[in-house]
Amino acid sequence: MSAIRFNQVSLQFPGASRPAVDRCSCDIESGKLVVILGPSGCGKTTLLKMVNRLYEPTDGKIYIDGTEIRQFKATALRQRIGYVIQQSGLFPHMTVAQNIAVVPKLLGWSRPTIQARIDELLTLVELPPQEYRNRYPAQLSGGQQQRIGLSRALAGDPQVMLMDEPFGAIDAITRTSLQDEILRLQRQLKKTILFVSHDVEEALRLADYLLIMQKGRIVQYDTPFNVLTKPANAFVHSLMGADDMVRQLSLLRVETAMMHLPTDYTQNGTPTVDRSDSLRHALSLILKTGAPKLTVLDQGRRSAF
Ligand SMILES: Nc1ncnc2c1ncn2[C@@H]1O[C@H](COP(=O)(O)OP(=O)(O)OP(=O)(O)O)[C@@H](O)[C@H]1O
Ligand SMILES: [Mg+2]
User: Fold this and answer.
1) With contact defined as beta carbons under 8 Å apart, do 200 and 48 qualify?
2) Mean pLDDT confidence for 222-230
3) Predicted confidence band at 295 (pLDDT cuts at 50, 70, 90)?
4) What is the distance between the alpha carbons of residues 228 and 87, in angstroms, rounded to a whole number?
5) Atom 20 of ligand 1 has which residue's CA nearest to it?
6) Residue 260 lies in a domain
7) pTM for the predicted model, two decimal places
8) Which residues have any ligand 1 atom within 6 Å of their CB?
9) Total structural domains in the chain?
10) Is residue 165 a contact partner of residue 198, using CB atoms and an 8 Å limit?
């Protein structure tokens, strides 16, 4: 079962000439990080906000773990879904600990459990609890505020996380380290993450799957490798910067690229390629198998090493 399912979802704001989100359908697999990518105004935020019912679709249905989300009370739904936005959205009059405790309190957790959870999350995002627990948001750097925003979203241990350009306002170096953090957390916690970005490099680094939007529609939903190498149309090709294919491919995580390596076959223990296979195929076999050499076949006959 998919963790999140969009079924023909549309939203037309009152007075708008066309829908902000237009008949979007897709299945988000549990435990995957899906990056929603597209130009400004294409409907990314609108799509995301319908998942936790900050907006209601004018048409279509959204399911979480098979249940249509309108069957949940909006407040109950939001407690099950972590939400991280660009300016962290921390409550300025609350300390770091109080900010993180918001959802656990609503969920009725005991005080000691909440305190333990705060320390656990601060440790997870590498901010020592003794030092940061009692600070106010204004006493933190932008990157630290985003880490607390992330901790707060994780506090109730939601299975689904929505992240709307969470690192948009952050300098490049901090941004890269926050991206690494997300990948580490993802590996550790196995959340299903919908992550909005309009930064192609960020998307290529993070995504298990890319969901490309244009004018409210999903134009492609596939792995980063496939989106780069088989763009659905010229818009996707240019959005992805696919003219500089080597550079863009180099941004992919090895594990996401590996999914696409053809299952190789071997002859006498050596991986085999055919003369007509691409060099990329040959290189990927070397990378995949670690073999020092390849057997090259010519229409099935061994021709070279
Ligand atoms: N509350 C609203 N009322 C009316 N129109 C809205 C509202 N929110 C968004 N829109 C419109 O819906 C369209 C999609 O907006 P959305 O915020 O989803 O874009 P986005 O892809 O997130 O863009 P960005 O990358 O700039 O954040 C835009 O044309 C926008 O003007
Ligand atoms: Mg947006």
Assistant:
1) no
2) 93
3) confident
4) 30
5) 41
6) no
7) 0.84
8) 13, 16, 20, 38, 40-46, 198
9) 2
10) yes
